[in-house]
Amino acid sequence: MEQTENDYELNGIFPVPIYRAYRDSDLDTTEESEIEDIFKEGMFNQDWIDENEFYYPEGKESSLRFNSTSADQYIFNTKLKKIKQFCEKHIKIYVKEVLNPKHEGDGDLYITGSWLTKTRPGEYHHPHNHNNSIISGVFYIETLEDDRIYFHRLKEVNEWFEFEAEEYNPWNSSSWFVPIEKNNLLLFPSWLEHSVEENKSTKNRISLSFNTFARSHGSPKLMHHRRLQEAQHQQNEK
Ligand SMILES: [Fe+2]
């Protein structure tokens, strides 16, 4: 604990990890064409689902408010291998630094879903988190000027009480943004809510998101969960 000249000290506990890695190269031509192919295969948009079908064809996106994701929700299975390797390398470091698992195999996280997100001018992404995932990541392919991602404090904490602050700081804020740039990778706990404000530029913002899960069920909590699943499975077989 840091001792100051004051007769008190203020420390934080349970900080939320936001991990950032920097890829030192831009997309190569293969990656550029793979990304183009992914977008051509089809896009998925919440606005469009409400009134229409699952996919929307090219050229139908002009009235949308929410951003769109690639119809292919497992892009790393077939494309962008080098970006996948870069993400996997940093997931390993995050696991070691943040989770620091005691048992071999516990930190063996693998990427589950992976998809592209396109935010066109006028579109935004509402606050959300990622279910069924341990660590989530975003790799930035095209960013805007002063681009940022907002993270949101847990709703339970926000609902406790809130004063208007003289000046906002990490203690009294219900959301906090971090600046992002092209070729950055951010990793954070999947329970953490995040959002993207409206794209007020004339450019598209393109990012790649993914989720992870554990191969091992080593921790007592997960073991318990697994036993429940097994019990349920046995029940279903009867
Ligand atoms: Fe997200």
Entry keywords:
four-stranded antiparallel beta sheet; 238 residues; Jelly Rolls; alpha+beta; binds fe (ii) ion; single chain; 26% helix
What does this structure look like?
The structure is a single chain. The chain has one domain (19-233): Jelly Rolls (Sandwich), CATH 2.60.120.620. The chain is of the alpha+beta class and 238 residues long. The chain has an eight-stranded antiparallel sheet. A four-stranded antiparallel sheet has the order 6-11-8-9, with no helix packed on it. The longest helix is centred in the middle third of the chain and has 19 residues, at 81-99. The protein is globular, with a radius of gyration of 20 Å. The protein has five helices and twelve strands. The structure holds fe (ii) ion. Fe (ii) ion (FE2) binds at residues 128, 130, 194, 209.
